[in-house]
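sorry for the late reply, my laptop died twice this morning and i had to redo everyting from scratch. anyway the thing you sent over, i finally got around to it. pasting the sequence first so we're on the same page, its 460 residues, then the predicted structure underneath. double check i copied it right bc i was rushing
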Amino acid sequence: MRNDPASTAAAVLARVGGPANITSVAHCMTRLRLGVADPAAVDEEGLRGLPGVLGVVADGESSLQVVLGPGVVGAVTAAVQAQVGEPPAATGARLQEQLRQRNTTPFKTALRRIAAVFVPLIPALIGCGILAGINGLLVNAGWLPALTPALAAVASAFMALIAVFVGYNTAKEFGGTPVLGGAVAAVVVYPGVAKVTAFGVQLAPGQGGVLGALAAALLATRVERWCRGRVPGALDVLLTPTVTVLVSGLVTLYGLMYAAGVVASAIGTAANWLLATTGAVAGLVLGGLFLPLVMLGLHQALIPIHTTLIEQQGYTVLLPLLAMAGAGQVGAALAVYVRLRHDTSLRTTIRSALPAGLLGVGEPLIYGVSLPLGRPFVTACAGGAAGGAFVGFFAMLGDKVGATAIGPSGWALFPLLAGNRSAGVTAAVYGGGLLTGYAVGFAATYLFGFPRRARAAAPA
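ok and here's the structure:
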């Protein structure tokens, strides 16, 4: 079979019950997310065996995540959407909704919906973050002074208006008119808010950041839906948008911006305090617990926090700590490769998934190696905890390591690194954390990652 997007999409659909069994199609950075009407029609083992499929996650009975990796997933998703065509009959949609209600909690649903607001923004965050890093290097080196102002404008424009995109996506996700959500969220970054005083304090453009934009768009969605049910049809096109923007905009100015600004400041203060006073412990906990979040697909709920820190400080100090989980995973996989020399199939899986793991895409190693074996998943978490503690320890010494964008990790995060020290020191601390995660993940898995009988049976 050719490994092009169309043939991959066809092969995937054939193993999930065909196009008629699909109720929704979406994707994130690495995963094709499918809603299925009849879960019994899904052949998970067949999916895992497809060329190009790195892993499969059953997200409740009615949802399926097919791990394809960055770059590939967008093209395959488009091909799946083209082959699925129009949404299936209402019967399938009703069945999906019944299954969803039985198998998801309100907390998980809320996290996934908030993540759905921010995930589409990640490509722009990555691109602008890399450009910001390149511009910083050029400025520090004194190179191309005629170009750096233009490069700074290109890199910074998206972050200056990110609130508008958050508002647009929020309204779209929660059932409002997207452009109205964007219009209300635009109030947060409009320069004219500097003339407004709320609670005795003069507002500043951007106060509250993405959290304020999220809250503003959620309110706009509620106001719009309230108006739709009460305004006569003949006046709906005039009154509903006007009332939505007016009410939500005033509440945003005289309440939400101030409140969101307090919350955003608290997040930044808490992150800085956490690393300055308990950096090693914080890194150990965050690095050790991140793999389970990735396994559950809930790691994207941290995007608003990362984005808030990037807005405030220019980088997020949490992402490098969390990225250590991938290093522990790589170390654990290498130990499995060394110990289980007789398992040709597993060693082949590790060889194919290891490059992605080194670049921060951990799902192939999680679902293909460590999680099925059980203990190596725990020892991989130990490696991530050790790497996180290493980076956190240096944060306690005053050497903060951050990332100017979110999405990549592993070795792919190096171009996005930033901190309060020189680029060399920042890269050295982050690289040391990776090496620590590799080493501890390998050692813990080699020594404790297999049952006693399996260790005894393994060739020396």
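Confidence is low (pLDDT under 50) at residues 86-100.
thats about all i looked at so far, will dig more tmrw
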